[in-house]
Specification:
HNH_nuc, WH-like_DNA-bd_sf, HNH endonuclease, 28% strand, Arc Repressor Mutant, subunit A, 2 domains, hydrolase activity, acting on ester bonds, Homing Intron 3 (I-Ppo) Encoded Endonuclease, Chain A, 198 residues, alpha+beta
């Protein structure tokens, strides 16, 4: 395949007889001989491993030798085998911020400060203040929606132009919001059902 034309494979340090990593961010196992129950020597063919993402999207592979299993991040494997690290820097940075793009050309060695500076320079670093302002803006947008409460006994409806206005009549904005969004199985609050106004 064309996308793998420039691929170079090297043995993984400590796993020389078992695994290889490529400059394109792939990891493969090598053919492995083994004995069957009759004592015959068989060969288990090698294959390209399918990496699994962690909670932040960074890809990991499992390297297995006998009964020992070790999970290793693919970007670190690629950096350690294809990038010089003369200053012994501890962090591997993805230049395009894509944790799944583990090509050697997309990686670089840095430290925590360098990583933060790079993110800041490219507009990816979000401060606590910015996060707070974004959350506040989302709350404001949510509160702008009109809600309608229907009395379960009489069928009478009351309308509030803003979600927070329900507090003035003793209702809980969070409860009303959950009912409008059909969350947590709630269907009524203080004798009223609730829905967003169209």
């Amino acid at each position: 395949m064309k996308k793998y034309e420039m691929e170079k494979w090297v043995s993984i340090k400590g796993y020389e007889k078992f695994y290889e990593v490529s400059n394109l961010g792939r990891v493969r196992s090598l053919d492995r001989p083994w004995k069957n129950w009759r004592g015959d020597i068989c060969v288990k063919p090698g294959k390209v491993l399918k990496p699994q993402p962690n909670s932040k999207g960074y890809l990991r592979v499992e390297l297995k030798v006998r009964k020992t299993v070790k999970r290793i991040f693919v970007h670190r494997l690629v950096a350690e085998h294809f990038l010089d690290n003369l200053e012994s820097l501890p962090v591997v940075n993805h230049k395009d911020f894509n944790p799944k793009n583990n090509r050697a050309e997309n990686l670089e060695w840095t430290d925590m400060k360098g990583n933060m500076r790079y993110s800041w320079k490219h507009g990816r670093f979000v401060t606590a203040k910015n996060k707070f302002l974004q959350t506040l803006e989302r709350i404001k947008e949510k509160n702008k929606r009109s809600v309608i409460g229907t009395d379960l006994t009489t069928g009478e409806e009351i309308k509030f132009h803003f979600l927070n206005d329900v507090k003035k009549f003793g209702f809980s904005p969070s409860c009303v919001c959950n009912i409008c969004k059909q969350k947590r199985g709630r269907i009524q609050h203080l004798g009223y059902t609730w829905r967003y106004a169209e």
